[in-house]
Amino acid sequence: MKWRHRYKIIPIVEGNGEERAVPIMLNNWFHHRGFGNFTTPELAVRAHQTSLLCEYDSARERGIEHYLDLAMRGRPDAILVIFDADDECNDRQKIQPYRPLGPELLQRAKQHLPHVPISVVVANREFEAWFLAAYRRLKTLRLIHRNARFPIGFDIEAPRDCKGHVSTCIGRKYSPTADQHVLAKSLGFGSYMGRYSRSFRKLLKDLEWLAQQARMIRQKRANPIR
Q: How would you write 170-196 as a 3-class SS string?
C-alpha cells in the first residue's frame, strides 16, 4: 500500500556506522509496529561526536541546536537524537552538582524547537551495548558465534569497551562501518531487550511517544479549532 501522507522521524546520531544503522533500526521498528505510514531517511544527520552536541556555537556549527536545524531541512514530524554515554556523560558525574547530559540536551532542544516532538536517548554506554542485549537473537540468526555467552549477572550496560565484547561475540575485529548496520537490521523489539538494556527500553518508549505526537500534531493542523 502506498501512503499519501507519510510521517517522517529524522534521527541525529554521532557515529559513522550509526548514520546508516539507526535508520535501518527505525524502519524495522515501524514495520514491527505496523506503522506503514512512517518513514525515516536512509542516512541520519551525523554530529560526529558527542562533544559537538554539547556547546552551542552557531558560527562554528556546534551544539544540538545546529544539528536540529540540519534535521529540520528534511521537514520532519519528529526528531530522535541518539548518542553514546561513553566518557562524556560519565565525566559529568565527577562534577557537582551533577547535571545529566541527556536531560540537559533535551531541554535545550525543546527550547530551540518548541513545536517539534523531540526525544534524546543516551545509549548506555555505547550503541553496541544494544547488540549485546540482543545476543540470543543474533546467535539464532548466526550473526554471532554460537558459543557466545555472558557470565551470570553480567550487566550489559556497564562495560566500557562494548565494541571489544562484540568483537569477541562475532569472532573477529568488529567494524562499526561494516558491521553496525547488519547487526542493527537484526535487532528485535521484544520485552527481553528492555530487561537487558534500560537505555533500549527508553528508546522504545520514546519512539511510541514520538509517533503519537507526530500523529496528534498533524491532526490538529488538519482540523484547527475555529
A: HCCCCCHHHHHHHHHHCCCCCHHHHHH
Domains of the chain, by residue range, sit at: 7-222
Is 159 in contact with 131 (CB distance < 8 Å)?
no
Instruction: Give the integer Cα–Cα distance in Å for 219 and 204.
Output: 23
CA 124-129-135 angle, 5° bins: 150
Q: Is the peptide bond before 4 cis (omega within 30 degrees of 0)?
A: no
For residue 91, pLDDT over 90 is answered with: no
| 38-74 pLDDT tens trace | 999 999 999 988 888 888 888 888 999 999 999 999 9
CA distances, 35 to each of 82, 192, 207, 211 (Å)? 21, 22, 11, 9
Beta bridge partners of residue 79, listed in sequence order = 10, 118
* 65-73: long-range contacts, CB 8 A cutoff, minimum separation 24: 65/108, 65/109, 65/112, 67/12, 68/12, 68/109, 68/112, 68/113, 68/118, 70/12, 70/45, 71/10, 71/12, 71/45, 72/113, 72/116
CB 76 within 8 A of CB 8: yes
Strand partners, 11: 80
Cα dihedral value 91, 95, 98, 99, nearest 10: -60
Span 149-173, average pLDDT: 82
